[in-house]
Amino acid sequence: MKTLLKFLLNVKHLKINDIELKEWSQELLIYVENTKGQKRRCPICNRKSSYYDKLTRKKKWRCLDLGSCKTYLVADVHRVKCKKHGVHTEKVTWAYHHSNFTKEFEYQATYLSLRLNITEVSKLMRIAWKTVGPILSRTKNRLEPDSRIRYQGLRRIGIDETSYRKGHKYVTVVIDHDQNQIVWVGNGIGKEVLEGFMKDLSEEQRKNIELVSADGAKWIKSCLNEWLPNADFCIDGFHVVSWAIEAMESFRKGFWREEYIKAKGGDKRKVGRPKKGETVVIDYTAKELRKAKYTLVKNPENLSEFQASCLDEIRYKYPKLFKGYQLKEGLRLVFQCKPEVVEDELKVWISWASRSRIKPFVELSRKIRRHYDSIVNTLRYNLSNARLEAMNNKIKVMIRKAYGFRNIDNMIDMIMIVCSNLYKEIKPAYELR
Is 219 found in the same domain as 139? Predict the structure, then answer.
């Protein structure tokens, strides 16, 4: 029986003394102890140490269920005094330090929590909901005690923020473009939060960073100017085109208001049915412009048949509005040019937009002129934040699947596992044999 239990528990250097079955609670208690060579060891450095006191206490560790029975390992443990790490509970071979679960149990719970929501994991493993988060954190710290190892070889990084809860709750994320993994996650947004990452880097690591991709946030730019003056800053092309889309939408709304006022003639009609002899002006122009909302922001190759006909109608009826659409598409096409002609094409577009007499695009041309070097770097080095946006989407799916986190540290540890190579190292318990 003891040989069979050792095989099922998959634990070495363990001595089984007794077995007790509690039928009323459906619990199986297995009384064990370390073998002679594994006693009196420090749980941190694994060195032989002296006993700190003679008192022992029965401690239980939950292990994987045997059938429908909850199974526990029970042992008397001492406190040892390590010369380097001080007083700690002595090491046991079947569990990690500061854990009430066996190694196989924690691996199985971590594997499931990366694929199921936390509520289902707690039901399946028969543990408390709030216990799953600390298990994740212990697994991450065990596989990667110091996350600064990811800073080695940083050359091209991306910086962005993503929300994890309603009410403007954000985390700042830094990704390594070459390794395709997240290297740092900070709670909150702003220059002070990002400086925490910069301070973690050594002077040599900061000098080795050549390219940084991000959106046009001022706090990112000011932090990079202070800490990474030698790195080239690249504004993501997606965000630059989104500026043009916002300008197009702002111009369409303003144009719609002007046409609406003209159609109404400046007189506002009272609510209710029109009186006899009263002429009612039907605002066909405003309706047409309202239908064109999605047509004007879409790429021409993605237009439906109806939207293409709507765009042709705008071209002949409202040439000024169509000019704004051409400006938007012109900026998008600049990002598809070859690197050797990018600067010339961007200068041509800035000149075109500044002389267009369309206020939103005139302001956009000034904004692009301020970020000219960063946009040229993006086109020259072909570096975007697409990989980071994909990671942000993965983070949101992960948080949604878990139905949120109460502890921000547990959430950050899970992000560091899911969005890195550690994800491949998390295996189910049966693969640990």
Answer: no
* pLDDT above 60: residue 267: no
pTM score: 0.79
> Do residue 330 and residue 216 come from a single domain?
no
3-state secondary structure of 42: coil
Which three-class secondary structure string do you get for the chain? CHHHHHHHHCCCCEEEEEEEEECCCCEEEEEEEECHHHCCECCCCCCECEECCCCCEEEEEEEEEECCEEEEEEEEECEEEECCCEEEECCCCCECCCCCEEHHHHHHHHHHHCCCCHHHHHHHHCCCHHHHHHHHHHHHHHHCCCHHHHHCCCCEEEEEEEEEECCCEEEEEEEECCCCEEEEEEECCCHHHHHHHHHHCCHHHHHHCCEEEECCCHHHHHHHHHHCCCCEEEECHHHHHHHHHHHHHHHHHHHHHHHHHHHHCCCCCCCCCCCCCCCCCCCHHHHHHHHCHHHHHCCHHHCCHHHHHHHHHHHHHCHHHHHHHHHHHHHHHHCCCCHHHHHHHHHHHHHHHHCCCCHHHHHHHHHHHHCHHHHHHHHHHCCCCHHHHHHHHHHHHHHHHHCCCCCHHHHHHHHHHHCCHHHHHCCCHHHHC
186 and 60 in a single domain? The answer is no
What pLDDT is stored for residue 211 in this prediction? 92
Q: How far apart are CA 116 and CA 132, in angstroms?
A: 12
Domain-located, residue 424: no
Which of these three, 108, 143, 178, is where a domain ends?
Answer: 143
> Could you tell me the CA-to-CA distances from 407 to 46, 54, 161, 412, 422 in Å, in that order?
31, 37, 19, 9, 21
- Please indicate, yes or no, whether residues 175 and 290 belong to a single structural domain of this protein: no
Q: Looking at the structure, tell me whether residues 328 and 396 fall in a common domain.
A: no
Domain that holds residue 309: 237-381
CATH number at residue 214: 3.30.420.10
Write down the pLDDT at residue 264: 64
Q: Is 297 within a domain? A: yes
Residue type, 150: R
Do 131 and 158 have their domain in common?
no
In the 8-state DSSP scheme, what is residue 48? Answer: B
Residue 430 has pLDDT above 90, yes or no: no
Check if the beta carbon of residue 10 is closer than 8 Å to that of residue 93: no
Give the residue-averaged pLDDT of 202-231: 90
